[in-house]
Amino acid sequence: MTKKTMNKLFLTLLIGILLSCSSDNNDTEPEQNSILGTWKIVSLTSNGTEELQDELDYADICYWTEVYTQTTVTDIDFSGTDCTTETVDETLPYTINGTALSYTTGDQVDVSLEIIELTSTTLKLQDSYEELGENYVDVYTYTKIE
Predict the structure, then answer these.
(1) Whole-prediction pTM
(2) CA 8, CA 50: separation in Å to the nearest integer?
(3) Which long-range contacts (CB under 8 A, 24 or more apart) does 96-103 make?
(4) CA 25, CA 56: separation in Å to the nearest integer?
(5) From CA 75, how far away is CA 59, in angstroms rounded?
(6) Count of helix runs (H) and strand runs (E) in the chain
(7) Which end of the chain is more exposed for a tag (fewer CB within 10 A), N or C?
(8) pLDDT tens readout for residues 56-91
(9) Is the dihedral of CA 95, 51, 48, 142 positive or negative?
(10) What is the DSSP string of 60-84?
(11) How far apart are alpha carbons 103 and 94 in whole angstroms?
(12) Is residue 76 within 8 Å of 83, Cβ to Cβ?
């Protein structure tokens, strides 16, 4: 084989190796960044029973959203005959530690929810608590709208 043929063969092999390599960079986006955006409530179950409509009727709203920024979460209620009247319920600082999302309400109640699902389109938060001697597990399911 001539030197010219060897160089072509080597160059072809090198290009083939370079093109077949994929990035091994498996960096995943931290959960806190994944949660950023506007999430609309689509389901609320309490001990496995759908309760969203009862909750909406009780609050006299059509639905609510939660808007997450890097440091705060804002609850916005939508009401009115055409469901376009927006009322900011509250804006609170929050933290995420592993799967625990925590904040303190305006009434100084510490809340810690478990993130049980977080994808680009779905957010599920679980709240486990005891009330009047009974244990409850509430699951809030949101869909991302922004």
Answers:
(1) 0.75
(2) 68
(3) 96/31, 96/32, 96/35, 99/31, 101/35, 101/125, 103/73
(4) 44
(5) 13
(6) 3, 9
(7) N
(8) 999 999 999 999 999 999 999 999 999 999 999 999
(9) negative
(10) T-SEEEEEE-SSEEEEEEEESTTS-
(11) 5
(12) no
